[in-house]
Prior knowledge:
Layout lengths: L19 E14 L2 E8 L2 E7 L6 H4 L7 E10 L14 E12 L16 H6 L1 H4 L3 H23 L3 E2 L17 E3 L7 E3 L5 H9 L4 E10 L10 E11 L3 H19 L11 E3 H8 L13 E2 L10 H6 L6 E7 L5 H13 L6 E5 L5 E2 L1 H18 L6 E7 L1 H18 L10 E5 L4 E4 L4 E4 L10 H7 L9 E6 L2 E8 L4 H10 L4 H7 L1 H7 L6 E7 H9 L29 H6 L10
Parallel strand pairs: 3-5, 6-9, 11-17
Antiparallel strand pairs: 1-2, 1-4, 2-3, 4-5, 7-8, 9-10, 10-22, 12-13, 13-16, 14-15, 14-16, 17-20, 18-19, 20-21, 21-22
Helix pairs in contact: 4-6, 4-16, 5-15, 12-13, 14-15
Amino acid sequence: MHRYRTHTCGSLTDADVGSVVRLSGWCHRIRDHGGVLFIDLRDHYGLTQVVIDPDSPAFAAAEKVRAEWVVRFDGKVRLRPEGTENSDLPTGKVEVYATELEVLGPAAELPLPVFGEQDYPEDIRLRYRFLDLRRERIHNNIMTRGRIVDSLRQRMKGQGFFEFQTPILTASSPEGARDFLVPSRIHPGKFYALPQAPQQYKQLIMMSGFDRYFQIAPCFRDEDPRADRLPGEFYQLDLEMSFVEQEDVFAAVQPVITGVFEEFADGKPVTKDWPRIPYAEALRKYGSDKPDLRNPLVMQNVSEHFRGSGFKVFARMLEDPKNEVWAIPGPTGGSRAFCDRMNSWAQGEGQPGLGYIMWREGNEGAGPLANNIGPERTEAIRQALDLKAGDAAFFVAGDPAKFYKFAGLARTRVGEELKLVDHDRYELAWIVDFPFYEWNEDEKKVDFSHNPFSMPQGGLEALNGQDPLTIKAFQYDIACNGYEIASGGIRNHRPEAMVRAFELAGYDEQTVIDRFGGMYRAFQYGAPPHGGMAAGIDRIVMLLCGVTNLREISLFPMNQQALDLLMGAPSDVTAKQLRELHIRLNLPQK
């Protein structure tokens, strides 16, 4: 017999009745029923009920066992008494009558429970993550993550992609978030950087003559954490393809992502024919470049109905041609209580309020806005929004560039409050035609708005002859249920176009050569047209596991303060280590 087990705790069935078996695992739950002990023994594979009565030679030792002790039981498999079966467990028809017990690893008093799924302070969960990971829900999440990664990998190979690994120690990049820097002992005063993404390397792989690359890539960014973004590191499905246009990337990626969602959606509907929404349209209709399309509400520009109206606040705003009034429909929201609640919510968001119109019986408009603009304009708005008696509409006014995010939040709030959002589905979409540049108000200059290595629509001709702020890029995102889960683009593979693109953002050719020398040189020697994207593994897993915090699907994450409470990182280092690296600390004053 094997030293520790003949079976796992998830494998015994009624076919094993009468067999003598050996099981090892953790004592999940211990119950004393009139002197008979019932121990649910747990391992990675499942749960088996072990019974020890006073006649068993193992009884005296079993009385000392506590939750989460690791033990070995020998015993005979028997059917559970009629009426005590557990149909929720694969092993629920049987139990093991124990005749021998060996304690393999006693456990101290637990700082958090493993049995049950009680909420517990996150810092304690992360400090004792090895206990937290024993809990069924998070254990299952981690296993689901592994299966999702495996599915992505197999689907990518099925599309003709080959897996490569790119360097972890690389050069610092001037774009994007802050780098994590690694001092060089051999080259005093110089630093490596951990890659924010394999962007330049994957393009260089295309320069090197390989055709379809992918990687489950670790990425490192020194940025502030939030619930949908882990501090420090994250993983992405990174890919690149040669001799492709945007349509080719879509055709390769969409079946992979759709297939994974369908495989792990647990029967929930998944979008098959993804809509393609231009960036500007996404902002105008949904107030977000990652819209949640489970929410059916679509915003409209209703400026014409307020221009020159009796509602002077909006009418005066509209004298400035850049200002607009947007309407957020609120089907079934036409009660004073709901409209006042939305107005209070807007004030809590730092806004002066949220104008509204309610429609009564006979489609008569009510509320201060309706009274000021009159019945004709009120009716025109109702028809434009396709509303009826009992409905409402909410209004946001000003410069759309400044208010669109708030309008998007209001759309989300109205949809959730009125229970219009179908949470049991996955709505996927392509967001396309991102602006290539944006205006940096702080520095009074043009900046890249997305990825500086993307191809501008119109190529070099657009860069030379168009207002930079009107140039669109061959850049695209995948949005799902209000999250950006992937981002990519067709690359700018012409050296003269690359230099010109950076010049418009304030970088001269020498700066491009200094900072992106490897890519710049590669472009001189026959660069194929290429493009690709990267999908966030963590966010995809988070969505498919039905959680809203990435810590619920990551093995050993940091906390909100970017601290690893389990391993104690970041930590102090010795004076000797600092001397070897030629580093002297200049700490801030406390």
